[in-house]
């Protein structure tokens, strides 16, 4: 078989495969590339030695059976016997469910997670969004310090395990989205710098030198990242990718890497004949992220909307520290602004950043599904000092209000695993670094970070303690008991109602009236979602069109009388059917 590697700085490259060494030759057609035919097949262990140095794993390795520092193994899903045909599921009309393989079950494997997929199909979500699955040191971790960007974490089940999971999801009609990290690699097990200029000091990120997207050698680095993305979508039959922190992808070339990537993904979708999409995590609040390429944008298909989360969180939880400060000054107004215009910071001053931030979206021209809305996600839970969920401090009624605003709102909704039943288990920051010095640096750094906010060291979970990961695993017995059972049923009903309603189109098609006290009325198509997160009964004027049916209610409510006023109990929500389309936006 043919072995290839890009190593432009090497004077000599040796392939070690199947216990033998082979001198590699320069590829005359591709500068910096080396190649060699050698015996090999599925499972063959191999690596490359540069100029007589240590044998390192293949940067494009598809499998690392012994972890990031071990030899690579020939592997690939090409030999997987797919059982279920898959035509794809597009993002329009989607309900996403973010899942971490290592804590979705106690076993922490793809196969154990696949066994729980019928729960998600019954819930009504359309896509499972897997947190990163690239190899990282040890067994347990979040996955954002992965290396080997073409490979699959072996303790989860490796490439075959991922393929089995995707096939099982497709059997139930569920699409699969994968979170990928292009903006940095983990500090341990990262061998890319030995092979070539994968990183550059031209730009700096919170993780150090930036990935090289615009300095000399960047053509191959861009091809490496694009090739990895296409391989996930093509070879594992995925429906989309979530791109981590794209604001950290520094690129001054005339065509931004993200536009190049989105073009390649759209071209692959056309070749495969099924929809594919990219969802960005972006801190920039820049409409260009989701603006189509022909209109001058980057062409990504959606982005996470943290502004909506922050407004909702401050309204329900009352927190005002850090980046919540701007939203806490007027949480109801902040929520109204995000529901109507997408971004809260759209050129306004951000006290957290100390300067103006963001640019406005055009609600009439922006499809609502291009923004992903959520009350919780892995970052907003796990980056808290103790990894506590909303259920740790909000009543079931307020959790029901959060669900109604997420699932009744204009954006593509996303749930974080266990949110659908109000899971009380925390989701904490945990690692399993095998380097003792790195492990201690992470432990002390975490404690130092939260000490600045008044937490004592003994209150911060030790990331390296196996008990921290164990506490973060979902308790699948919870849904059998109240109030979890009722919350699960509530989420099922809201999701079913959302999916039964045709996509309304642009952001402006959903109207949102939010009272200064926090009560809200959303109109999306023929659905009217009313929310009362206050501690007192509320009278909410629904106006026109007239409500004709109560479709779901956290506490029993009656249809409005001739005055069109809905009387809603404290900490509750309801969804009603209204005759005709929503009124013009106010």
TrEMBL record:
**Record's catalysed reaction(s):** hydrolysis of (1->4)-alpha-D-glucosidic linkage in 4-alpha-D-[(1->4)-alpha-D-glucanosyl]n trehalose to yield trehalose and (1->4)-alpha-D-glucan
In chain numbering, where does the site feature Transition state stabilizer fall? 379
- Residues annotated as binding substrate are 242-247, 306-310, 378-383
- Record region (Disordered): 44-74
Q: Does the keyword Cytoplasm apply?
A: yes
Q: Which residues form the active site?
A: 244, 281
Pathway-wise, it operates in: Glycan biosynthesis; trehalose biosynthesis
What Pfam family does this protein match (any one)? Alpha-amylase
Where located?
Answer: Cytoplasm
The UniProt record lists the EC number as 3.2.1.141
Q: Which InterPro entries match?
A: GH, GH13_cat_dom, Ig-like_fold, Ig_E-set, Trehalose_TreZ, Trehalose_TreZ_E-set_sf
Q: Cellular component terms, GO, for this chain's entry? A: cytoplasm
Q: Where is the composition biased (Basic and acidic residues)?
A: 57-66
Q: Biological process GO terms, please?
A: trehalose biosynthetic process
Gene3D superfamilies in the record, alphabetically?
A: E-set domains of sugar-utilizing enzymes, Glycosidases, Immunoglobulins
Which key words are in the record? Carbohydrate metabolism, Cytoplasm, Glycosidase, Hydrolase
Q: Name one GO molecular function term.
A: 4-alpha-D-(1->4)-alpha-D-glucanotrehalose trehalohydrolase activity
Which parts of the sequence belong to the Glycosyl hydrolase family 13 catalytic domain? 98-446
Q: Which family does it belong to?
A: Belongs to the glycosyl hydrolase 13 family.
What is the designated name of this protein?
Malto-oligosyltrehalose trehalohydrolase
Q: Which organism is it from?
A: Streptosporangium nondiastaticum
Classification of source organism: Bacteria, Bacillati, Actinomycetota, Actinomycetes, Streptosporangiales
């Amino acid at each position: 078989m043919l072995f290839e590697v890009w190593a432009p700085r090497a004077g000599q490259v040796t392939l070690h495969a199947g216990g033998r060494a082979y001198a590699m030759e320069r590829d005359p057609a591709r500068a910096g590339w080396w190649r060699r035919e050698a015996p090999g097949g599925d499972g063959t262990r191999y690596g490359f030695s540069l100029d007589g140095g240590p044998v390192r794993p293949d940067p494009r390795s598809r499998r690392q059976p012994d972890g990031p520092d071990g030899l690579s193994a020939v592997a690939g899903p090409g030999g997987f016997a797919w059982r279920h045909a898959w035509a794809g599921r597009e993002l329009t009309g989607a309900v996403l469910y973010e899942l971490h393989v290592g804590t979705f079950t106690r076993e922490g494997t793809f196969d154990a997670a696949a066994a729980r997929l019928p729960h998600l199909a019954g819930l009504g979500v359309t896509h499972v969004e897997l947190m990163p699955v690239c190899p990282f040191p040890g067994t347990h971790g979040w996955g954002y310090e992965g290396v080997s960007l073409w490979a699959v974490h072996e303790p989860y089940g490796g490439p075959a395990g991922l393929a089995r999971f995707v096939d099982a999801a497709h059997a139930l009609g569920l699409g699969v989205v994968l979170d990928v990290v292009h903006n940095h690699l983990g500090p341990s097990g990262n061998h890319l710098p030995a092979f070539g200029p994968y990183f550059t000091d031209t730009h700096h990120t919170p993780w150090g030198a930036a990935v090289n997207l615009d300095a000399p050698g960047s053509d191959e680095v861009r091809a490496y990242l694009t090739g990895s993305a296409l391989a996930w979508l093509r070879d594992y039959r995925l429906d989309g990718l979530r791109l981590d922190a794209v604001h950290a992808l520094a690129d001054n070339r005339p065509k931004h890497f993200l536009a190049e990537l989105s073009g390649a993904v759209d071209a692959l979708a056309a070749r495969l004949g099924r929809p594919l999409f990219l969802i960005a995590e972006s801190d920039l609040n820049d409409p260009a992220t989701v603006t189509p390429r022909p209109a001058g944008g980057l062409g990504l298909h959606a982005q996470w909307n943290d502004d909506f989360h922050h407004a909702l969180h401050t309204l329900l939880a009352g927190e005002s520290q850090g980046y919540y400060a701007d939203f806490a000054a007027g949480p109801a107004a902040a929520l109204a602004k995000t529901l109507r215009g997408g971004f809260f910071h759209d050129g306004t001053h951000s006290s957290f950043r100390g300067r103006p931030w963001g640019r406005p979206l055009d609600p009439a021209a922006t499809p609502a599904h291009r923004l992903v809305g959520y009350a919780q996600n892995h970052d907003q839970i796990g980056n808290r000092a103790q990894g506590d969920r909303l259920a740790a401090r909000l009543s079931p009624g307020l959790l029901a209000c959060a669900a109604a605003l997420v699932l009744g709102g204009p954006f593509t909704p996303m749930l974080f695993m266990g949110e659908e039943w109000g899971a009380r288990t925390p989701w904490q920051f945990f690692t399993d670094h095998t380097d003792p010095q790195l492990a201690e640096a992470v432990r002390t750094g975490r404690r130092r970070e939260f000490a600045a906010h008044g937490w004592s060291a003994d209150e911060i979970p030790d990331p390296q303690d196996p008990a921290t990961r164990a506490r973060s695993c979902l308790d699948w017995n919870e849904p059998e008991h109240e109030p979890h059972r009722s919350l699960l049923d509530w989420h099922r009903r809201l999701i079913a109602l959302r999916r039964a309603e045709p996509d309304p189109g642009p952001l402006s098609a959903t109207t949102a009236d939010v009272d200064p006290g926090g009560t809200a009325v959303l109109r999306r198509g023929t659905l009217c979602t009313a929310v009362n997160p206050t501690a007192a009964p509320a009278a909410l004027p629904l106006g026109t069109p007239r409500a004709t049916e109560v479709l779901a209610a956290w506490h029993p409510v009656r249809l409005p009388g001739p005055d069109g006023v809905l009387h809603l109990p404290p900490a509750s929500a309801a969804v009603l059917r209204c005759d005709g389309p929503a009124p013009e936006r106010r």
